[in-house]
Structures are given as structure tokens and as C-alpha cells.
């Protein structure tokens, strides 16, 4: 059946339960050819579950799927592929040790590899996406933004009719997002339907034809015009106050951290950006932002301050005393905390409990004769977890089963328990829902108000503009500009972020 | 998507004590296996099987491997593997016998020396995996070979007896005392069979270290996510070196037991013990991916292998079939740890 002309996909009354959770309940979705439909909702609203059903990740579910007017039985990724459905997962599914061409045709190779043919086809696809890469390049040598586009190329190589993108921009800087939009417009121009999951409302205004809002596994409504306040209210089920709750220009105290001419060598092969003579200060009670494109050295800067990488030159002071951390352990001892960029890979032991994770860096405080005073440690952990309103049945709950926003709160709880004076945050709100995001912003303000220093790197410029007293801009490992609050604009920051070598601001 | 929606707020402390205790005791399937084997043992050879001497001897024969399993569990928890423990036990048992035969050292002097020897090679394992960044499988595989070679070289490929007779034709006092480490029929204070006691004490000590100390938590953190551990201030290198050293030290501790049990140190002693040790840890619920496992589980796993050997032996099942059954039990134990596998086997579809 095809009720509407051009309808390429219809999902009808889709339901799915996990042990103890009704993840989806009677959700329907139709998508037309060449349309970009945005799926919006908090973490745990059911967006990824719905899309995983479409992509054949789940074997069993309730409801019916039609592709091009025909009932489609999708119970495996292979089924989905046969019906022209491709999904680009949030965690990219590429094999790092294989070349781009090998990745594109993985699982579809002929018994006797046709290297020349696949490489030619790959080169063509890459050119079409404006990617200047050789098909033989190993994926591990590509930047995240490039990998994202390689995933798109992979989808395109399969004659895709419906392309699902789960948070495609969460790892991208603004300039790279532009390029992705260009690619999406090109695809829709060729009649491909795109289902787009994102937490960034501002993006949807630009790219989406229609927004569908899910909440608690239910279809809440859809809109053709994007009204942010209304959408947020639909998502969280309640009106939300100011997105960024920070009052302008708090008073700032003493210099907490000074960095003078910090140079850190890069690492060949790992794609780590070297830092070149970076200087900055963070005062007590101040939130300082670090902006820059992908690969500008934002993470490297925070990690170097945290003692992850050895500095080759420069000097730092912390609280007026020389500061030369040999390891994260030494940095933690001096009262520094790092909320790392990738919470799953860098911050959490996913298979272990909330209590284990939150307590990990603070165990030294709870030792009695070398033995962890478990009751005292657990009490402290519970207090911290409650304060941050982590939604979980208890601190014995496994972290891996929490939603993204709650995982991030666990990371924050873990660091707050160490009572740091300087908190380094790398993409603290990436990939988490609006509600949790607002809570984290409020927390940042509260920390600054308590006199702690906060150094935050983010690829979301609105977040930096609203939250920070000052914004530093990095480009290719050096500071190219610094803006005080009020004088920073998206345009000025972007310009400085793209100020390659010759220009200095 | 991991959907955890509107769950209740964090509960007050002190709850779920029951569940906590259960999880500390190890994986449930191990107990099921233990009960099954006991049942088979009692049903087939009840009287002989339940005889105290039989049970003590069974555990005694396996105790040295059980102690190795505790060390291997530590390494597995950090996400590594230690294949060298069998060889380390061999060289420690040789060290013990030679100390006794050549220098007439007292038993209480021999044990620390053996532990230092084991710890030394264990430390090299740790140093290789961290500083030289050799995968632990490779590093300890090499150590297995190197140490076995050294063992055979120092012993000239001849086993060294521990029943050393003095000029009067009787056992020397040191050799007499050494028997208490495990020669069947020789008990500590005429009551306690030392290998059993040693195994239980080692289990308790390391259970407490893993559950109660900061070091223990760090072991789980390193195995669960080394990057997160490092960024949380854990000295991953030190923890890794420590677990390998402890594993070697325990192998050294088990050496004299093995020598006393066999009344001699054979240059081949301990060969393939590492496989029994790993099997015990795995049956007990340890995951080779790291971060998951308990000493209690390993204890039960070792007990299962012990009693299995015993029950099959009593029923005159050949060694060959014993090996086959042991292998199958490992597979069944691992499958039972994966309840999701059952949904798959049942076909999964509910609608």
C-alpha cells in the first residue's frame, strides 16, 4: 500500500520491550523520498531502538515495516541492506586496520578480491563526497570527520534508499558539519530519504524538513516548523528554563592555573596534534572555554595539563606553585580533574558498578590501614550520586546499562568526589539529552561560583559563548585568539579557528 | 539504546546485602557443577568418596594447581594471561628439592626462597608486558619455555628426591620436616593436611586483597578499562607488574608442596598445570577479557576440577576420557555464564 505518493518507508505501530523496560510502544513513522526527518528525544526516549529495528539490529519486535509500498521483513542487518536501508551508528563501525576500500566492501567482496575494481569505485565515491583520500588509506589514519564521511560512502555504495544517521555531528566541528550538510542535501536531491538523530536543536532548523519527537518510547508529535521552546517542551514533557543558566561575568579570583609556552610533541601514527607554545591562565571562579576545529589540539591541551602527555617545553603553575605533572595520578593529587572526551573509552569501567567507578580516583581518602573503608566510601559516593541526580536503582547498578546522560553524571560525580580545585572538561555535553545538558551547565556555573576553575573544550560554539568568561581558540596546536565574554561571536571564533599559520589574531 | 527511564532514586545504603554476598561468592553455575559432581560421587562411590582420607588426598593432589589458579586469576582480572605458572612451579619445586638435598636448609627457609624465585620470574613477565609492551600471552609463553629450560639445565634432567637419608640410613631431620608440606600421611600437628590449609589460606588472603583493598579495586579497574583506570590516577604499569609478580610468587609458594607431594622434584613437574589453573579460573566465572571474576569463583572452579578427577578416578574412567570430560566442562561452564545464549537457542521470537 502507498497512501502518499513518494512514501519510501512506513513503520507502523512498532513496539519493543527489553527485560524490565518498555523501550518502544506503538510508534509509527513515515518518510518520503528526498526528505530529511529528524528524530528528537531525550536519551532513553527510544530513538536508537527504533532505528536499530529498522537497521535489523534486533531480531524481534512488534509492528510492521513497509519499504516502497511492500511489506519488508527486517530481522537482520542483511535484510535491512537488501531493502536499501543503511545506518551510520554513533559509534562508527569501521575496521581501523583495513583500508577505506576494504571497509567499503567488507562482507561483499568476491571470493577472489577485485582490488582494482573496488578501489576505483571507492575513489569515485570519495570524490563525490569531496574527500581527498586515497582508497588505500587505512581507516585508522583518518580523522573522525573523515570516518563519518567514509561511513556515508559505504552507505552510498549499497544503493541506499533510506539512510539513518545517529548523532552524525556529535564528533564534528562546525566546519565539518557544514560539509556533512552539503552531502545530505546532495543525497536528498537524488531521492534518498534521510532519518537524522541529533541532540543539537540548532542543527535541525537548518537540515530537517520535519521533526518527530519521541518521549518514553512513544510518539509525541511532529512539526514542520522548528520552534525550539516548543520542541524542548515536547521532549522533556515540561517547560525548560534557560538553556544556559550562567549569569554574565562573575567576579574572578586569583590566578589558579597558568600555562606558559607549553609545547608537547605529537605522536606520529596516532594522529595526535602537537601543541606549540600554548599560554593561558584560568582564575579561580572562572570558566574558560577552548574552541577549535577537529584536530586543533583541544583534547591534547587538556590532557597535557592533566599529565597524560609529557611536555617538551614551557612551564605551568597551579595555585601559585610550580606544576609539572608526571602522570594523571600526580595531577589528581594536586587537585586537578579531567572529564575526558570519550566517556565510554576513557572514563568508565562500563562492566562495573556506579559505586566502583565513582570511588576509583578517591580511594586513597577512604583507606584505613590499607583497607578501603567500604561503608564510608559508599556513603560518600551515594551522597555525590544523589546530588547530581543520577537516575539509577542504586550504586550497585552497572554503569554500562545507564543512558548517556546518566553515565556522564557518573563521570562528574567521580571527579567531584576528589574535591578538585581545577576541573578540565572535554566535550562535557556531547551526545547527551537536553535535560541532562542543562543540569551539567548549571553544575559548571555552580562550580565556578564555589571558586573552582573550569577549563572546558567544546565543539558546540553556542555552549562556549553562553557559559564561558573567556574563550581561547586553538588552531593546529597553537592559540590563535582569545575573546572575553561578550566580545566572542561565532563568526570571530570560526575565523580564528581556521587561521592557519600565517594569520594571528 | 540503553533505556533506563524514570527509575526510583538511589536507595539508602545497607541494602542488597544478600545480593552482594552472593556475587562475592562467585558465579552460580560453578556451584551447580560442584553439587552435581558431589552427587555423582556419592551416588556411585559413596563410602569411598566421602571418606576423609580420600577427600583430603584429592584436594591435596590439586592444591598446588589451585594456588596457581589464584595467581592466574589475578592476572586474568587485569586482562592478561599467565602461561608460565606451570614452569615456575617446576623450577620452584626443583629449587626446594635442591635446597634440601645440597644445603640441608630448614623448610621454613626453603619456602621464602622459592617464593622469591617465583616472584623474580613473575616480575620479568610483568616488566616484559609493560615496559617492552609484549602481549602477556607471548611474554609468558616465552617464559614458560625459558624457565622450563633452566629447570632442566640445573637439574641435569634428573629428578631430585626429597626423601634424603642421613648417614644413619634414616631421613635427615630437614627431610623429615619437609614432608609436612604434602607427603601423603604427614599432617601438620598430626591433624591438618598442609596443602589443603595452604590453598584455603591463599584463597582467603587474596579474596580479602581483591575485595577490601585499594590495590584490589585497581586490579579490577585495569582489567575493565585501562585507559579509564590511568585517567583516574591508577598506576596501570605498577598494578600489572604487581599481579604478574604475585602470580609468580604463588607459583613459587606451590613448588615445595608439589615436591613434597611427589617426594621428589621432577624436571617436568608442573607441566600443563597452567591449563588447569586457567580452567579453574574460567569455570569460576573469570572472563579472559578482564575485569570480571572472583577468588571465590576460582576456589569453587578448582574444587570442581579436583573432585572431578577424583570421582572419575574412583569410577575407573581412563585418563584419556578424564581429559575429554574436563574440556567439555570448561565449555559448559562458559556457556552457562552467558544467559543471553539461551534466548538465542530458544529462537528468540516472542510474537
Automatic annotation (TrEMBL), chain A:
Give the UniProt subcellular location, in the record's own words. Cell membrane
Residue ranges spanning the membrane: these are: none
- Gene3D superfamilies registered for this protein in UniProt: P-loop containing nucleotide triphosphate hydrolases (3.40.50.300)
Q: Which domain of life is it from?
A: Bacteria
Q: Which one of the record's GO molecular function terms can you name?
A: ATP binding
Q: Note whether Calcium occurs among the keywords.
A: no
Keywords, A to Z, come to: ATP-binding, Cell membrane, Membrane, Nucleotide-binding, Repeat, Sugar transport, Translocase, Transport
Q: Which GO terms describe its cellular component?
A: plasma membrane
Q: How does it sit in the membrane?
A: Peripheral membrane protein
CDD domains membership? ABC_Carb_Monos_I, ABC_Carb_Monos_II
Q: What is this protein called?
A: ATP-binding cassette domain-containing protein
Question: Which species expresses this protein natively?
Answer: Nonomuraea phyllanthi
Automatic annotation (TrEMBL), chain B:
This protein is called Autoinducer 2 import system permease protein LsrD
Q: Which InterPro entries match?
A: ABC_transp_permease
List the PANTHER family hit by this protein, alphabetically: ABC TRANSPORTER PERMEASE PROTEIN YPHD-RELATED-RELATED, AUTOINDUCER 2 IMPORT SYSTEM PERMEASE PROTEIN LSRD
Keyword presence, Calcium: no
Q: Pfam families from the xrefs?
A: BPD_transp_2
GO molecular function terms here?
A: transmembrane transporter activity
- Domain of life of the source: Bacteria
Query: Which UniProt key words apply to this protein?
Result: Cell inner membrane, Cell membrane, Membrane, Transmembrane, Transmembrane helix, Transport
Can you quote a single GO CC term?
plasma membrane
Species: Nonomuraea phyllanthi
The protein's location, in the record's own words, is:
Cell membrane
Lineage of origin: Bacteria, Bacillati, Actinomycetota, Actinomycetes, Streptosporangiales
Q: How does it sit in the membrane?
A: Multi-pass membrane protein
